[in-house]
Amino acid sequence: MSDPGKQLELFDVLGAQEGFDLEFKRSRDHLPGDLWETYCAFANSDGGTIYLGISEQGEDIRALGVTDPDRLLRDFWSAVNNRGKVSHCLVTNKDVEVLRLDDGAQVIAIKVPRAGRRERPVYVGQDPFNGTFRRNHEGDYRCTRQEVERMFADRSEEPADHRILKGFGMADLDQLSLKQYRNRFASRILDHAWLAEDDKGLLRKLGGWSLDRSTGAEGLTVAGLLMFGKHEAITDKDAVPGFHLDYREHLTDDPNIRWTDRLTYDGTWEANLFQFYQRVIAKLGTGPGIKVPFDLDPEGYRKPVTPVHEALQEALVNALIHADHFGQGGVVIDRWTDRFEFSNPGTLLVSHEQLLQGGISECRNKALQRMFQMLGVGDKAGSGIDKIKKSWSAQRWASPRLKETLRPDRVQLVLSMVSMLPEEVLTDLRERCGPAFEDLGGDEVQALVQAHLEEDVTNQDLQDMLSLHRTDITKLLKGLVRKSLLRPIGIGRGTRYVLGPAFTPTKGGISPTKRGISPTKAAISPTKAPISPTKEIPDLPIDLRLIAESIRSTKRAGREQMEDAILALCQGRFLSLDDLAALLGRQQEGIRDKYVSPLTKQGLLERRYPDKPNHRDQAYRTVMNEATKQA
Asked: Which of 48, 93, 226, 277 has the greatest number of C-beta atoms within 10 Å?
């Protein structure tokens, strides 16, 4: 008999459709053939859980159970340890368990961890270029050859920036950058032995010039060129042709002004990493939200004097040294009046949880890291994010958020300067909630504050803000729902929570029914009952309700019928996923994954915010062309 707590967790899982980290497999008496694609996809992404014995068809989710769990487990362990089936076994006994429901049905849960950089790519069969998969919100997808090659590059013991560039030499370096670097190095450690070396000798010590002992060849490394090179040489087809650096300030509310300041290559400066760092760090030190400017050291260079400045310096250097400079998009720093966003190409080399815990150092460009360390920045102990979080916490600002996206692979760090616990928000919550508010724990209060400030809060939001595991955050959110302090909208990974009925609206406050949709998540019965969503239809024109009625009134509708209805509803207007889900009587994730995303890819729907697919106010409108006119 399994732990009752595990049973409750399973019932919660049944209330969610398949998402980024969750997969249901019917498989009553055998291992499904696509099990290994999902196993590899989870391993190459951020991990996830596969449930065997659960059926999902549309929005009908049933726990059917498996007929012989012992035999399926033997088959699983035999296959997962077979290198002809899958390249790496990442799971241990504690990751695989049988969960028994009250009616006797048994379900197998397989928790697949994120693979380490030395284990990726994890692939099916013998050919990594054909058998490597990753995971997104639409399911498992086969990786391109380029994606697989980047994984192999990351697993190499030789860092990406150590490679010697054939045909490149000292003439490709900017002498001013080398001179300025020496001066900054000397201002920190005046009598350092490396400073006695000539330029080539200093580069050798830093990792910017190297010798291949197996061939006797020596020359400029990728790190040396990136840090000190001339822009024309850096972007040469035989070096780093996609190299790009961009700093943008958006310090105005005028929609006609795209940015108030921008620093990118324009021919007036050598756009290498060192010059970019010097210019951007000076800009980050002043302006809105930054109360104390940088001081000057004895050599006249700016130095950070507050934890905020140190955090910004650490964030900038992290983006430069952890970037996959051969990837897409380059390093982009965006500054707004209320936040900073640091974005770089590449994926995380450790899991999100390991990164937040600190103490694990995995750097894609170790020579670049050493170069910045000689200037006193670029922590090697794996505690850079922790240092940033502590600095931000000291200001009572919202915790830094780290996001990883695929296709293209990018990592983004968002540093918000919005107060984590604004006193006016706390006062409003106390007034509206009454004495019950004083009995809440600190993490619960933070969740409510976030829901008040942003109009909603998600599990992922709190993972970025709190030092709690995802499952503990799930329990916290469900507890607040039971207390009527939060109300869920949607199901599964896309669930958002708004302030619940326990909060009475006040003048100037945020009404918990502002969005106009009040879906109720159906209770999950352990007796294999299907899930049937119930949503109140939003206050939209009556013609839309009539269009949607034929779909809403039936549990079954064909794909073509659903697509025609969505295109008709969105004709001449933008509708959100919330609106569509409520009108059609379906779950939001199902509408998005099965219909809206494919229609958007086909060019039949367009986004209100095309450059920001995950915008909180995203909506969709039908594109009028021959195909949609016929529909």
From this structure: 226
Q: What pairs with residue 63 in β-bridges?
A: 54
Do 383 and 430 lie in a common domain?
Answer: no
Cα 342 to Cα 540: distance, rounded to the nearest angstrom = 39
Residue 183 φ then ψ, to 5° = -65, -40
Q: Does 455 fall in a domain?
A: yes
Answer for the pair 379, 359: CB distance below 8 angstroms, yes or no.
no
351 and 495 assigned to the same domain: no
Residues 468 and 609 in one domain: no
Span of 14-18, 46-50, 437-441, 601-605 with lowest mean pLDDT:
14-18
Distances (CA, A) of 546 to 88, 550, 584: 53, 8, 10
| One domain for residues 255 and 396 | yes
Give the domain CATH number at 68. 3.30.950.30
524 pLDDT more than 50: no
The amino acid that residue 165 corresponds to is: L
Instruction: Give percent helix, percent strand, percent coil of the chain, each to the nearest 5.
Output: 40, 20, 45
Domain closes at, from 499, 531, 559:
499
- Using one digit for the tens of pLDDT, what is the confidence trace for 541-588? 666 777 787 787 776 677 888 888 899 888 888 899 988 988 888 888
Range of the domain at 452: 423-499
Q: What digits encode the pLDDT tens for the residues 529-551?
A: 333 333 455 556 666 777 787 78
Burial class (CB in 10 A: 0-12, 13-18, 19+), 250: middle
495 and 551 housed in the same domain: no
pTM: 0.66
Tally of structural domains, the chain: 4
**Structural Rg of the chain based on CA atoms:** 27
